[in-house]
Amino acid sequence: MKKIFIFFILTFFCAQSYACPFCGCGVGNFYMGLLPNFKSKFIGVRYQYMSYHTQITGDAEQFGNDYYKTVELWGGISIGSKWQLLAFAPYQINNQKTDDGIKNLNGLSDITLLANYKLLDKIKMNGSKSTQQQLLIGAGIKLPTGKYKIDIHNPETEIGDVNSQLGTGSTDFLLNATYDVRFNKFGINTTANYKINTTNNEDYHFGNRLNISSLAYYQVSLKKSVLAPNAGFIYQHSGENHFSSQKVDQTGGYLAMAVAGAELSFKSMAIGANIQLPFSQNFASGQTESKTRGMVHVSFSF
Predict the structure, then answer these.
(1) What CA–CA distance (Å, rounded) separates 206 from 236?
(2) DSSP of 102-119, one letter per residue?
(3) Span 98-118, average pLDDT
(4) Residues 6 or more apart from 295 whose CB is under 8 A from it?
(5) Cα gap 115→129, rounded to integer Å
(6) Phi, psi for 171 (deg, rounded to 5)
(7) 236: exposed, middle or buried (Cβ count in 10 Å: 0-12, 13-18, 19+)
C-alpha cells in the first residue's frame, strides 16, 4: 500500500511539476572518452560540463535550466601485458534554475571500477608504413557512493529532485569494448559501453544506458610533443526509469552529438579538450533539450 501511494505521488509530480527536467539524464552518466596512452600507470583529473533546458509545451511559465559539472579523478594501471584496471571518482556540482527557484547540490558522486582485457594487440609493418590494431573488452561496477535521498512525503519534492541527485543509490554493472586501429599517423578509436542499472533502496530504477563513441584522429609530431586533433560522434540511449516496477512517464530518450577536440602529449604528461554539439535528440517528448557539452583533462603517466 505504501509503494502504491509513493508511486501515485511521483506520477502526480511528473504530471504537475514540469519545471525541472524529467528525463533522468543528469544522474548516473558514465563517459569513457579517449584513454591516455600509458604502459604502466596513469593518474589524471578531468572536468566535464553539460546542461539541459526544459520548456513545457503550451506553458511559457513552466521552465527549467539544469547544469551538471563534474570534476573527476581517474587513473589506471596495467597488470602484465593483457590487463588494465581503471578507476573513476567524480565530484558532482549540480545547479537547477527553474520557475520555482534555485537549487544547488554538491558532493562525491558514484565511483566506478573497470577492468579491461586486451583481446587483440597487433602491429603489421609494410616498409615504412604500419598498421596497428588493439581491441579491449571489459566489465566493471558502479558503487552507490553518491548521496541519493528523496523525501517523497515532503510536498516540495519534485521529479527533478530525482534527476539531480549526486548518485543513483544503486550498485550498477558495466560492459565495455574499445577498438583502436591506426594507419601510420591516422587512427580511429571506437568505444561502446552498456550500463546495467539495478533498483535502489527506495525502489527506484534508472533505465539502462548505452554509450557509443567513435573518434578519428591524426598524430602530428612536434619538437618534443605529439598533437592529435580528433573529431567524431557520440550516441547515448537511456532506457525508461521505473518506480516500484511501474514506468515513470517522460523518462528515457536518446542523444547524438558531433565531437571535436585535440590531445597534446609530451614526455609523461597529456592534456586534452573537446566540445560536444548535439544534432539529434529526444527527451520528454521534445520538452527537454540537451545543450552544448565540453570536457578538459590533464593526466600523468609513470
Answers:
(1) 15
(2) EEEEEEE---EEEEEEEE
(3) 93
(4) 31, 33, 46, 47, 48, 49, 261, 273, 274, 276
(5) 32
(6) -90, 120
(7) buried
Query: In terms of pLDDT, which residue wins out, 10 or 196?
Result: 196
Of 104, 117, 225, nearest to 165 by C-alpha is 104
Tens of pLDDT, residues 236-258:
999 999 988 999 888 899 999 99
Please tell me the predicted confidence (pLDDT) of residue 160. Answer: 58
225 three-class SS: coil
In whole angstroms, give the CA distance from residue 256 to residue 237: 9
Distance of alpha carbon 138 from alpha carbon 174, whole angstroms: 8
Q: Write the DSSP assignment of 11-55 as a string of letters.
A: HHHHHH-TTS--S--SSS-----PPP--SSEEEEEEEEEEEEEEE
Three-class SS state of 219? coil
Quote the pTM value: 0.88
Spacing of C-alpha 275 from chain mean position: 14
Chain CA centroid to CA 138, Å: 17
Between CA 84 and CA 36 the distance in angstroms is 12
Map out the domains of the chain with their CATH numbers: 2-301 (2.40.128.130)
Instruction: Provide the grid cell at 179.
Output: 577498438
Beta pairing partners, 142: 112, 172
Determine the distance from the C-alpha atom of residue 290 to the mean position of all C-alpha atoms in its chain, rounded to a whole number.
13
Q: What is the strand order of the sheet 246-247 is part of? A: 204-205, 242-243, 246-247
C-alpha–C-alpha distance, residues 74 and 87, integer Å: 6
CB distance 84 to 74 below 8 Å: no
Does residue 37 carry a pLDDT above 70? yes
Selection from 147, 150, 145, 212 nearest residue 172 by Cα = 145
Nearest to 31 by CA among 48, 45, 43: 48
CB-based contact 111:86 (threshold 8 Å)? no
